[in-house]
């Protein structure tokens, strides 16, 4: 499996790939406000690349429960200087975490090469899917129950693994109907997006079912609240080892991509689990 990036570069998924998280937001739950200038953000991206990140995932709108929406122009004002500098200085793929087609289009023009859409192409109706089809770039389709403002209000499923997987398969189908190539679609169960602790754990225990669907799978557990609930680590920054445990589980299940804040522990967890898995097969 591989993702074809816009300018004929590829991201091979023959071993676990880490997307280093870079939030250009004042209010993200764990790294909000940490990179107030483009320069500090670019420096952090380089650090993550040196630590073993395979791509950088840039976001300018927090999706934490209850977060305020950010206008497209404001997202672009935060994103474009960082994308331009990074695209100029490195060939590492840049993924853009946005649900807005206007943001996606300008970010791709500036040097972004993957779109990470936590609304799975629903926020901007099918315009996002049409744009992705036109540009031929990869898209990450994530499951979310409801919207960030309300998603943690008593979420319910009949069978969380089957419900989330069926949603993702139907969005992947919609993307293909809009002209997106099957091999450019990544699916993501959306850990923490309208899910209780039990829902998150059931999804992590059922990752092999997502992998069996045949699309590359991305897992985003990094520093999330359920890890604090299990471990008692109150500060998100103290959840790196807990995150690495989920990365190991993901690699063992065949998950190809991981969106993480702490590159070093997750690189180690992914590489060790992958090496053991190769020995087994
Ligand atoms: N999680 C977050 C944001 N974007 N994208 C994908 N594909 N999968 C995820 O699990 C995911 C995501 C939330 O985490 P973070 O960016 O750290 O926080 P915030 O949304 O507060 O900026």
In short:
By secondary structure, the protein is of the alpha/beta class. The chain has 10 helices and 10 strands.
Provide the fold topology.
Blueprint: E1 2-4, E2 10-12, E3 17-23, H1 38-51, E4 55-59, H2 72-89, E5 94-97, H3 101-110, E6 114-117, H4 127-135, E7 139-142, H5 160-177, E8 185-188, H6 197-205, H7 207-212, E9 218-219, H8 225-231, H9 240-253, E10 257-260, H10 263-280
Parallel strand pairs: 3-4, 3-10, 4-5, 5-6, 6-7, 7-8, 9-10
Antiparallel strand pairs: 1-2
Helix pairs in contact: 1-2, 2-3, 9-10
This protein binds 6-hydroxymethylpterin-diphosphate.
Structural class: alpha/beta
Helical content (DSSP H or I, runs of 4+): 40-55%
The average pLDDT is 95
Shape-level CATH architecture: Alpha-Beta Barrel
User: What about the largest sheet?
Assistant: 8 strands, parallel
- The CA-CA distance between the termini, in Å, is 18 Å
The shape, in one word, is globular
As a percent range, the share of strand residues is 5-15%
Low-confidence runs: none
CATH top level label? Alpha Beta
Strands of the biggest beta sheet: in what spatial order? 8-7-6-5-4-3-10-9
CATH fold naming? TIM Barrel
Order of helices and strands: EEEHEHEHEHEHEHHEHHEH
- Hetero ligands: 6-hydroxymethylpterin-diphosphate
At the fourth level of CATH, the homologous superfamily is Dihydropteroate synthase-like
- For the record, the count of structural domains works out to 1
Q: What is the number of beta strands?
A: 10
């Amino acid at each position: 499996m591989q993702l074809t990036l816009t300018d004929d570069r590829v991201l091979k998924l023959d071993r676990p790939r880490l997307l280093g998280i870079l939030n250009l937001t004042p209010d993200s739950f764990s790294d909000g406000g940490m990179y107030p200038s483009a320069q500090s953000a670019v420096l952090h991206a380089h650090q993550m690349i040196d630590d073993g990140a395979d791509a950088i995932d840039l976001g300018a709108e927090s999706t934490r429960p209850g977060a305020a929406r950010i206008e497209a122009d404001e997202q672009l004002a935060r994103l474009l200087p960082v994308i331009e500098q990074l695209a100029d200085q490195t060939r590492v793929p840049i993924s853009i975490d946005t649900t807005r087609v206007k943001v996606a289009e300008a970010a791709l023009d500036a040097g972004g090469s993957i779109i990470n859409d936590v609304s799975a192409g629903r926020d901007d109706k099918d315009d996002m899917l049409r744009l992705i089809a036109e540009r031929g770039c990869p898209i990450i389709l994530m499951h979310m129950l409801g919207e960030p403002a309300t998603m943690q209000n008593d979420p319910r499923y009949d069978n969380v693994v089957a419900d989330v997987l069926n949603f993702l398969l139907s969005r992947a189908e919609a993307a293909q109907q809009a002209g997106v190539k099957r091999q450019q679609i990544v699916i993501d169960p959306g850990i923490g997006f309208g899910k209780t602790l039990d829902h998150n754990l059931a999804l992590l225990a059922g990752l092999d079912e997502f992998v069996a669907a045949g699309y590359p799978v991305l897992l985003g557990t990094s520093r999330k609240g359920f890890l604090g609930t299990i471990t008692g680590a109150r500060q998100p920054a103290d959840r790196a080892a807990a995150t690495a445990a989920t990365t190991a589980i993901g690699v063992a299940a065949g998950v190809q991509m991981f969106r993480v804040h702490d590159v070093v522990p997750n690189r180690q967890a992914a590489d060790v689990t992958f090496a053991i898995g190769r020995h087994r097969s």
